[in-house]
Design a protein that fits this description.
This protein starts with 7 loop residues before the first strand and ends with a helix. It has a five-stranded antiparallel sheet with strand order 1-2-3-4-5. By secondary structure, it is α+β, with helices and mostly antiparallel strands. A hairpin with a 2-residue loop joins strand 2 and strand 3. It contains one helix and five strands. Helices cover about 25% and strands about 40% of the residues.
Length: about 90
């Protein structure tokens, strides 16, 4: 497995539990910014190739806030944009 230490984001659940995620991508979409994050250790009910979408906002102190995105339409659009960007990058490499 590759070393992702620089891309590790630790988020705290509502229960106060800390969960480490690897940042897969950041996606700007419709005036908002989203992060595609994959848990370092599998979460219950998730497959090892699944990732979650979080909406990223800045608080008044300039720190990033990550809020899990629950809207299926937005999640689908974020993954579509991610796949489009991957396709573009692959074409540029050819």
């Amino acid at each position: 497995m590759e070393n992702y230490e620089d891309d590790i984001i630790t988020l705290t659940t509502a229960d106060g539990e800390e969960v480490d995620f690897v940042e897969i991508a950041g996606i700007a979409l419709d005036g908002s910014f989203y992060a595609i994050l994959q848990p370092v250790e599998l979460l219950e009910g998730m497959d090892d190739d699944e990732a979650l979408v979080f909406k990223v906002t800045r608080n008044k102190d300039g720190e990033d806030n990550f809020e899990i995105e629950l809207d299926d339409d937005i999640i689908e659009k974020v993954f579509e944009e991610y796949n489009r960007l991957l396709d573009e990058a692959e074409k540029e490499e050819e």
